[in-house]
Each structure stands twice: as structure tokens, then as C-alpha cells.
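Hey team,

Filing this mostly as a record. A colleague (T.K.) asked me to run one chain through the structure pipeline before their review meeting, and I want the input and output archived in the tracker in case anyone asks later how it was produced. No errors, nothing strange. Just documentation.

Input sequence:
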Amino acid sequence: MARLKEKYVKEVSPRLKQKFGIENDHAVPRLLKIVVNMGVGSAVENKGRVEVAARDLATISGQKPVIRKSKKAISGFKLREDMPIGCSVTLRRERMWEFADRLITIVLPRIRDFRGVKDKLDGRGNYTMGLSEQSVFPEIEFDKIEFPQGMDITFVTSAGTDERGHALLKELGMPFAVRETTQKGKKS
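Output structure:
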């Protein structure tokens, strides 16, 4: 069993049940899936960049990504319909837990000047964060990076509310940034 999943079952779930007064085990907020998306805007000029991004994403996630294609043509961006412009992967079960554990314990602390991630959720308890480049993952060899590529990582939960989603992610170890208060007591 993945280390983070074991922590969820033994520690996090009982704490969330107690905190929110939940009696049914199936009603406890849990992580459903993690979606990692790489939009490759430079693929318009160089079609090989999508394959390179897909290879890096496969190395990071341990799962073959799906190549995403444009839905419509936009002449201002020199974009044609059905042109490959990105890749994504949806992680579930053990791979999801392993990826979340690596992200929280290894990758985020490796970011230079890291002070925590923003604590803004989407209103339904889901959380999306962005990374500016793939080199923070230890699986990627720094010397073999052809171009820096950012990614969006979305944690989809069964929480339903931001309060419960935030509590779940905080208990799992997500390093949320501490908001500083200004002199008038307002959060900045």
C-alpha cells in the first residue's frame, strides 16, 4: 500500500470524521483522482515538442499520456483544427497516491524560494496548482531537458466544499502558504 494512502486510512480519515461529525465512512472526503496537464503552446511551430512533453509526462506520472488536439482553428495563433497542442494524464488508485506522495514530500520542497502553495480551491473542494517547469521532478534528468515545460496538477476530491477539501489536503500534507495579515487585520 502506498505510504500516503496508508496515512489517509489510519490517520486522516478518522480525524476528518471527528472534525466534521461524519458517521458514514463513505461520506468522508477522499482523493478521487489527480489530473496532470501540459499545454504545449510552442507546438504550433514545432510539432515534435508535444512528443517530448508526452515523454516527460510519462516519466513523471508512470502512465502513458493522452495527446490533446485543438478543437477549432484560430488564425491569430496559427492554430488549425485537430492540431496536437498538449498532453494529459489522469491518475487513479495506487499511481495517484504514489504521485501525490512524491509531489508533496519531494517535488514541492525542491522548488527554489518555496513558501507554500496558494490555498484557493474551486468551490467544490478540488484544488489546482501549476508548476513552471518539469525539472523539479527527480525522474527528469536535468541535462536531457530540451525545453522547459510547465504543467497544471488538479486534485479532484469528493469533499463537495472548499472547507472539507482544504482540510483533506492539509491533513495529507499539502504545504499551503500561510497568509500574512496586514496592520488593519485584513489578509493580503
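Quick notes for T.K.: The chain has one domain: 28-172. The chain has a mean pLDDT of 77.
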